[in-house]
Amino acid sequence: MTRVLLATKNLGKVAELQRILSEFVLEGASYEPGPETGASFAENALAKAREGVAASGLPSVADDSGLTVDALNGMPGILSARWAGRHGDDAANLSLVLGQLADVPSARRGAAFVCAAAYALPDGRSEVVHGELRGSLLYEPRGTNGFGYDPIFVPDGLSVTSAELSPEDKDAISHRGQAFRALAPLLTAALA
Predict the structure, then answer these.
(1) CATH number where 118 lies
(2) Which residue in 64, 90, 150, 171 is the catalytic one?
(3) 64 has catalytic annotation
């Protein structure tokens, strides 16, 4: 099995990606990733993967993902993790989005989780793929699984939030699961 650096410090993503990318031996980032300065999910994912290679010398995978809300013109988007001001404050981010949508009727609460997943290799090769999960947002959080905006996001066709799904059920449909399942064979082929 090939050792690959998972270029993130987000423990929720680490656990999720260890399940999804089980054919690789994933090592967590032992450095502090730089700020996300790209203008798109793809730019941020690729920058983090390349940063992982530079820090470790290992093939690296990374993602940038977030919530796009129709009624907020696609925001918080690439700012999802720091929407309320401080990076990674899930409770504050969730509260802010709920406050911004307080008067928005159910029919206009469409949203999507979006993920760009990237690999970068020490020889400079890289690739980016995308995944998306459409759904709608609730008025109140439900569920304790997952992280981020999972407690208010109901995937299309379901009656439960992402935070009410088992980890395996969430991985099967999630934006990150889609993206990394698409990335895995590309990375395997690139490493062959």
Answers:
(1) 3.90.950.10
(2) 64
(3) yes
